[in-house]
Amino acid sequence: MIDCLSSQAIATAAQMQAIENLIFQAGMPVAALMEKVALRITQRLTELYPARNYRRIGILVGSGHNGGDALVVARELHHQGRQVRIYTPFAKSKPLTRVHGCYAKSLGIPFVDLEALQDCDLIVDGIFGFGLERDVTGDVAIAIHTINNWQIPILSIDLPSGLHTDHGKVMGIAIRATHTFCLGLWKRGLLTESATPYVGKLERIGFDIPEQFIHQVLGDQHPLWRIEPQILRDRLPIVRNPIAHKYEIGHLLLVVGSQQYGGAALLAAMGAKATGVGMLSIAVPHSLKPLILVQVPDALVIGCPETAGAIAELPNLDFAKYQAIACGCGLSLEAMPVVKQIIDSDRPLILDADGLNALASLDRATGLDQLQNRKNSVILTPHWGEFCRLFPDLRTVERIEALQRAVTLTQSTILLKGSKTAIAFPHNTSSQVWINPESTPALARGGSGDVLAGMLGGLLAQGMAANDVAIAGTLWHSQAAIWLAKQRTEMGVDPVTLAQSLLPFLGQELPV
Ligand SMILES: NC(=O)C1=CN([C@@H]2O[C@H](COP(=O)(O)OP(=O)(O)OC[C@H]3O[C@@H](n4cnc5c(N)ncnc54)[C@H](OP(=O)(O)O)[C@@H]3O)[C@@H](O)[C@H]2O)[C@@H](O)CC1
Ligand SMILES: Nc1ncnc2c1ncn2[C@@H]1O[C@H](COP(=O)(O)OP(=O)(O)O)[C@@H](O)[C@H]1O
Ligand SMILES: [K+]
């Protein structure tokens, strides 16, 4: 079972409510829980937004308990000596929220019109939390639109108001937060691609939920997990046996490149090299061999017969020599027969890019269905476009749901790339999904994925289990890119620099 359940589990609104109810049934008063949560929010807010720079604070208050949290925060900030003003577009509210409102008034905290918040240094958003179920309209929608156009930092409590807790879609309009403090367990919607532009920096504020309540509601087969960036420390760098020789550190075969996409082969090789893999062999079209040899002198380059600039067939290779094969970067569709040959091999396998496109164009019995019969693991690494080509029936299904179904169908590990890369692997009768919570749009440029495919291949060849490879590789790739973007801006994370920075990143800085 996973340690620190509450730091990794992802919940829906219904699950969160069920857990909350168990806490209340066990005797915790609702008001006491709200007080505890809001004090923790205030404490963290005070660290991030100290009084010397953030004196004037605007508080947005909704009618439910999200608004109640915000009112307790308002009271505490008032006692810190800050200038607090409250805006609420609602005439009625839940009883607990109402009494906190009364007390705030009795303390002399002003309830103001929206315009009076325009000179605030910070806005705290407590309009809606996980209780939002219908579209935001009217005065509330106008208020959100207006606030979003001010250049004032916004801290959202639990969720940016207007986002749906479960699917992360915007319900008409939503707050664009600078920071979101998610309360209790991670909410599913916050880790979706559609929520990403609204969430800002995401943090979790725990409130000591007893683990047995989480188990009781989520169950042992819980399908959805957040990857903690900190676990990279446990996985990398790989520690070597002091008396190792090169063939004990894994032999990776890359099957990559075409005349049209020669660079992809080089980028995959650079990614693989960064893993320290003991031996690297690279199969490319014969005409590419001199180029690859100059750039990667430490690799064994296998020149293959070619057709239309792509690999026509692999020469007689003994696949047993390789601990893993990574196939597809820049391969071109002309190389389809080669992909078939590789799927039929018994080696642990990464299929990327044209490897996936070839798989999609093979008929199902010799392509996708074959994956289930493989002796060894396979990791598919599609972005959403490639995913839809592979699984056309799933193109209208929600991303995470689609991923789970595809894993059940193929019994393979699938790494679905994007701004919130999601990794799923077969688990008993269903699949488990892990979501990478942090990345950077600096990676949105041609070739980033080729570097990743090489990295995954290098890790797989060194004997890491496929699920760990997918998680560790994704984390390393995205955290190195974040690190690089801090030094060179988001414009400076080109794939060559990224590949060259993977090891300096591991050596110098890991997320704490
Ligand atoms: N996690 C936990 O365990 C803890 C949770 N806590 C906090 O509680 C929050 C959840 O509170 P909640 O259930 O009261 O829901 P919340 O989101 O505040 O309000 C929904 C209200 O808005 C209304 N409404 C809905 N849609 C609307 C619309 N489109 N336009 C207009 N109105 C609309 C709806 O009223 P209705 O109109 O439907 O009667 C309802 O009253 C949670 O996010 C966290 O901050 C902590 O205090 C303690 C620990
Ligand atoms: N907006 C984004 N935010 C974070 N990561 C991104 C974003 N866009 C792309 N990426 C990452 O960059 C990589 C791009 O891979 P891919 O689409 O295969 O590119 P290519 O085929 O050009 O190499 C993936 O790891 C993906 O997760
Ligand atoms: K909120």
Automatic annotation (TrEMBL):
InterPro entries tied to this protein: Carbohydrate_kinase_pred_CS, CARKD, Nnr, Ribokinase-like, YjeF_N_dom, YjeF_N_dom_sf
EC number: 4.2.1.136, 5.1.99.6
Binding site for (6S)-NADPHX: 65-69, 129-135, 158, 264, 330, 383, 450
Statement: the UniProt record of this protein carries the keyword Nucleotide-binding: yes
Cofactor binding description: Binds 1 potassium ion per subunit.
Binding residue positions for K(+): N66, D125, S161
Binding residues annotated for AMP, in chain numbering: K417, G418, S419, K420, T421, G449
Residues in YjeF C-terminal domain copies: 229-509
One Pfam family here: YjeF_N
Subunit annotation: Homotetramer.
HAMAP family, per database record: NADHX_dehydratase, NADHX_epimerase
Function noted in UniProt: Catalyzes the epimerization of the S- and R-forms of NAD(P)HX, a damaged form of NAD(P)H that is a result of enzymatic or heat-dependent hydration. This is a prerequisite for the S-specific NAD(P)H-hydrate dehydratase to allow the repair of both epimers of NAD(P)HX. Bifunctional enzyme that catalyzes the epimerization of the S- and R-forms of NAD(P)HX and the dehydration of the S-form of NAD(P)HX at the expense of ADP, which is converted to AMP. This allows the repair of both epimers of NAD(P)HX, a damaged form of NAD(P)H that is a result of enzymatic or heat-dependent hydration.
Stated name of the protein: Bifunctional NAD(P)H-hydrate repair enzyme
Organism: Pseudanabaena yagii GIHE-NHR1
Gene: nnrE
